[in-house]
Amino acid sequence: MRYLTAGESHGPQLTTIIEGVPAGLSITHEDIDIELARRQKGHGRGRRMQIEKDQVQILSGVRHGKALGSPITLAVENRDWTHWTKIMGIEPIEEGVEDEIKRKISRPRPGHADLNGAIKYGHRDMRNVLERSSARETTVRVAAGAVAKKLLFELGITVAGHVVEIGGVKAERVPYKDLTELQEVTEASSVRSFDPKVEQQMMDAIDQAKENGDSIGGVVEVIVEGMPAGVGSYVHYDRKLDAKIAGAVMSINAFKGVEFGIGFQAAQLPGSKVHDEIIWDEENGYTRRTNNLGGFEGGMTTGMPIVVRGVMKPIPTLYKPLNSVDIETKEVFAASIERSDSCAVPAASVVAEAVVAWEVASAIVEQFGQDRIDLLLENINRSKVHARDF
Ligand SMILES: Cc1cc2nc3c(=O)[nH]c(=O)nc-3n(C[C@H](O)[C@H](O)[C@H](O)COP(=O)(O)O)c2cc1C
Ligand SMILES: C=C(O[C@@H]1CC(C(=O)O)=C[C@@H](OP(=O)(O)O)[C@H]1O)C(=O)O
């Protein structure tokens, strides 16, 4: 499966075209709207989220609620667009006020794509960069991910994401019954964390940062349960599923690092405390006594839950701005800003869930190669029996 996205943050809409979804998969706009709404929530979001009410339009590839096997087009409207038609060049600008309205951006914001993008594409107005580098684009990545999640769900595979750290406040590893419980609890939390003890502390940290004109980042975790063993491959660098997932998580705006299982902690521990012992029983076949490696060995799934974490840097736009240089005058300035999120880690956990679901679903469709959902399910079930009886 593959997808492309198109659209500017303050343009009329975001669009994605997704290809390779097996025919017969049931997809409704509710399946996607639920995920879009989840991405909009979370303590620390700015004023833009009060304007938008993301809802999908399914424009192709689905008929009577079922995927046709043909490309699926999904679109999400930007409600804010009506306030930007002149700036975005859709409506004519009256004589004499052109410069004011165009608000040409010559002042790059540290931590954003502004300066590098301007140098690369030769834009003297950095709005031409920021419109597309904005995380508004993650809206349709979540829409594509919702389709992937639906596909995985039909195959008995569940994906859930949550927040494990915000601004240095860490959630404790609370045992939960299953991923459904994790999902329910995080849905009810303003910071999407499973640990109720830390919710208030995380919100306080966000509020404090905002009060200081600052921003904070954090860590999100995505768990995938129900995977068959052996998805991905060790034979080539570009077939390793853990590498694809890591790339997808790193591609989320503001993400600076990824780890699986105990991740970077592995550097401090001896091998005997890191590797997961292999065990066997008749009912489950081969499993692991622990899951320190987060569900991967040799670029392939072990059948244990995939556990992947990503770190998000603090939001770069600061109410107490850092210095930068105007590209026209070369003068130093401290950027002024109109609105911004102060923390988007809870929202980013939904994006992370979506991009991980996409990579896992793509790998499954590639490996068990079927154009039809019913035959894909048969193939996966056969492979699970094969692994158990091996
Ligand atoms: C859901 C989400 C919301 C974001 N909101 C903002 C925001 O309001 N203001 C901002 O400056 N950056 C925001 N960012 C981060 C920037 O998009 C990102 O830092 C920027 O595009 C530069 O990319 P890089 O950090 O990956 O290098 C957000 C990121 C995500 C994932
Ligand atoms: C619009 C979204 O996030 C935006 C991501 C973003 C950025 O620079 O990445 C900057 C802000 O946009 P604006 O400048 O229009 O307020 C956020 O609101 C969204 O998540 O849907």
Keywords, please?
five-stranded antiparallel sheet; binds the ligand C=C(O[C@@H]1CC(C(=O)O)=C[C@@H](OP(=O)(O)O)[C@H]1O)C(=O)O; globular; binds flavin mononucleotide; alpha+beta; 11 helices; 390 residues; Chorismate synthase, AroC fold; 17 strands
Please, could you describe this protein's structure?
- This protein has 11 helices and 17 strands.
- It is an alpha+beta fold and 390 residues long.
- It has one domain: Chorismate synthase, AroC fold, CATH 3.60.150.
- The protein has a 5-stranded antiparallel beta sheet with strand order 8-7-9-15-10. Strands 1-2-6-3 form a 4-stranded antiparallel beta sheet. Strands 4-5 form a two-stranded antiparallel ribbon.
- Helix 1 runs antiparallel to helix 10.
- The longest helix is centred in the C-terminal third of the chain and has 23 residues, at 345-367.
- The relative contact order is 0.17.
- The model has no long low-confidence stretch (mean pLDDT 95).
- The site of ligand EPS has 12 residues, from loops.
- Residues 9, 46, 48, 52, 134-136, 139, 253, 339-341 line the site of ligand EPS.
